[in-house]
């Protein structure tokens, strides 16, 4: 707390000095180079703690694995995670502590849409890289902000991928969107409409309020409109209710949804009714046969055996691995200009866990692609490769 | 419910005011020099404390003095934040104008809450204000064309007379409002209104029999409290520079109530100490991995068990004033 506020927050010397001091204290004489410190803020308490803890566990697994192999260019990775209970004002406090007190080089995998949005002024003014937040909002990368980089495709991009698949591959034109009437739902429907509008195909829009449990009205309306395909945009619990409602009417339309539907819990909630449903995948499913997914699950078992691999921890793990790749490309330098330059030079980098990632000075949303997965035999299986949104 | 702090506040004990003024002056002087030895993190927390202390002062007038429980103060805080932010960013008004105007708008709403409050007491009032808070929060959420809905509102730094107000400037602004708020609460609590509110808390029947216009005083308490809270909201919006409706939930209302209970109900010093506790203690507990919430809860229980009059009541006892 003794530093003057006016001091440049992330001067390279300050980072090295602070990192050096910690190296003496924690990593002892083993490390020749000072470690790279990065921080995270996320909900580790409160209603969304499963999400925050999952992402955090994933980063910790990745860092443990990288450090066990000697770190990046001899530099170990140090991770400091702070709780914000999903309250933006606490996220800012956490980020300021991490940057000004702990002198972290970057904020990694900050979890939550509102908390990430709240950090934008601070990271811009303090020139702190905000890397790979677990958030799907449009505002993070539009317009491009020098220090903000994302990997997860925002929901509008997902909807363009899904609409392409419905119109081109399934060749279905009688489609209804049953969507949660909030910012997320409206954003998603805007993405669908954009693509449907281009082919001049009407989209039946049926909103519902968050928290409702009665879907008989919207399902009956969809059936009356004669649609063959329902895009459901909401949480899996509500998706299950809609599937039940349609089943009660003896009606079997094709169901689809965004990445939240493609979760194992959809099967617990909807049972056999979920069979045949489609969802947009933003990352590989957990039971994929891909070697990168198997390696991730093995790593989590090895380094954090008390926790379970989830889609959240997969994002955290990939974020940690990506950071290591960025550091390798920057020649081990962790100052802001080096990190940004290394990131903006990333072209089609494949982690094996999601679509290849490309950044450029004009594009800080790393992946504008998703894949389609299908519910088969109680599992989600990818049925397409990574599809570009346009 | 008569306690030491109440008695100390009555006019007969005027002799103690001198030392309290010295204490207040010392506190203000310390707060004025604080930015010179704090980093951005410390300054942020101190600004947040000042803002929450303004809310606590207002809420203490309503709950601590008049005995009316409110669970809609987070929503009023949010309305103040949105009103100030929209007047500044969309209508283009100067920040120093939109702040009080936004607060006056919120005050009108606070006075409207008071109308049902005239008929309800205790838990019934709490539930009614809870509902009102949800209505306000939902209104902000649904009124997308104006508020931007659930996606929230990002704000540019405020300017005063063409100069951008940085973190230090905003801190001093919040401090100035806190000092004004302290002065207002001090005067209000020690005068006719303060005595009337305290009597209403003890017994409405007794108060009415003494000719106190209960309805008028309750509305006054709600309105003043809403004004304090809305000013704080307007400062908060530009401290965080991102506001979204979800932030102004019942949890925050309960946070505000806990501030004044921890600090000391019906005391002015307690409002500040409570806000400081609420902001700083969770930050100090960051080092405890996985369980800061648990430890914070335990600390809360201990404070209430061992210091039923709050931290401020405890401090006064140590200072030898009964």
UniProtKB/TrEMBL annotation, chain A:
It holds the Pfam family Peripla_BP_6. GO terms for biological process: amino acid transport. The keyword Signal applies. InterPro entries: Leu-bd, Leu_Ile_Val-bd, Peripla_BP_I, TAT_signal. The keyword Nucleotide-binding does not apply. Keywords: Amino-acid transport, Signal, Transport. Belongs to the leucine-binding protein family. PANTHER family: BLR6548 PROTEIN. This is Branched-chain amino acid ABC transporter substrate-binding protein. It comes from Reyranella soli.
Automatic annotation (TrEMBL), chain B:
InterPro entries: ABC_transp_permease, LivM-like. CDD domains: TM_PBP1_LivM_like (cd06581). The keyword Transmembrane applies. It comes from the Bacteria. Its main location: membrane. It is found in: Cell membrane. GO terms for molecular function: branched-chain amino acid transmembrane transporter activity. It holds the Pfam family BPD_transp_2. This is Branched-chain amino acid ABC transporter permease. Keywords: Cell membrane, Membrane, Transmembrane, Transmembrane helix. The chain crosses the membrane at residues 21-38, 44-62, 69-87, 93-115, 122-141, 169-188, 219-240, 252-281, 293-312. PANTHER family: HIGH-AFFINITY BRANCHED-CHAIN AMINO ACID TRANSPORT PROTEIN BRAE, HIGH-AFFINITY BRANCHED-CHAIN AMINO ACID TRANSPORT SYSTEM PERMEASE. One of its GO terms (cellular component) is plasma membrane. It is a multi-pass membrane protein.
